[in-house]
Amino acid sequence: MFFKGGHAAKWSENVFRQEVDTGVFPIQTWRDFEQQFRLHFFPVNVEANAINMLEGTSYYQRGQIVDDYLDNFQALVSDAGYTDPQTLVVKFRRDLRLGIQNQIVTMPYGRPANNDPDTCRGSTRHALPMRPFSPCHALPPPH
Predict the structure, then answer these.
(1) Which of 88, 100, 111, 120 is a plausible cystine mate for 107, CB 3.0–4.6 Å?
(2) Cα–Cα distance, 122 to 133 (Å, whole number)
(3) Rounded Cα gap, residues 84 and 46, in angstroms
(4) pLDDT averaged over the chain?
(5) 88, 132, 99, 73: CA torsion to nearest 10
(6) Is residue 27 one of the residues assigned to a domain?
(7) Exposure of 15 by Cβ count < 10 A (0-12 exposed, 13-18 middle, 19+ buried)?
(8) Does any domain span residue 122?
(9) DSSP class of residue 132?
(10) Residue at 1 is within a domain
(11) Same domain, 34 and 96
(12) Which three-class secondary structure string do you get for 74-115?
């Protein structure tokens, strides 16, 4: 069942409360629903939200495997409009798990350039063997 938790549950409770208070369900048409849905569930400013996420302290790799972290990172970077290669590399590396950051920095050869996101992506994946028990998959999230 949908609308059972979080913001969605509060919104639907409010809609039904309006019906009890007024005797009329506030959403009469699909267009009404679409407008309400957009108003309450679509971010007002996708770019600002992405920038805040990338610049804040809450976005890190945590328990994600590198591929998932990379996909999410690329979506945020795209939404934020970041294009400077060095900025992309610095932010990507900063939010990786510390053990993975250390492996990249101490690579004896093939270490990615600090201003080339493509080599950073590739070397992050190749620096760590993608086996089930690789550090990429097995490190616990930071405390």
Answers:
(1) 111
(2) 19
(3) 19
(4) 78
(5) 20
(6) yes
(7) middle
(8) yes
(9) T
(10) no
(11) no
(12) HHHHHHHCCCCHHHHHHHHHHCCCHHHHHHHHCCCCCCCCCC
Q: What are the Cα distances from residue 52, in Å, to 13, 89, 113, 139?
A: 30, 17, 26, 27
Average pLDDT over residues 65-77: 88
Smallest Cα–Cα separation from 103: which of 91, 95, 115, 111?
111
Task: State whether residue 5 is helix, strand or coil.
Answer: coil
Same domain for 73 and 102: yes
Give the number of other CB atoms < 10 A from CB of residue 26: 15
pTM (global) more than 0.70: no
CB 92 within 8 A of CB 113: no
**What's the token pair of residue 73?**
């990172």
How many degrees, rounded to 5, is the angle at CA 50 between CA 44 and CA 53?
Answer: 120
In single-letter form, the type of residue at position 112 comes to P
Contact 15, 9 (CB under 8 A): no
Domain around 20: 6-41
| 90 backbone dihedrals φ, ψ, rounded to 5° | -60, -45
At which residue do the structure tokens 């019906």 appear?
19
How many folded domains does the chain comprise? 2
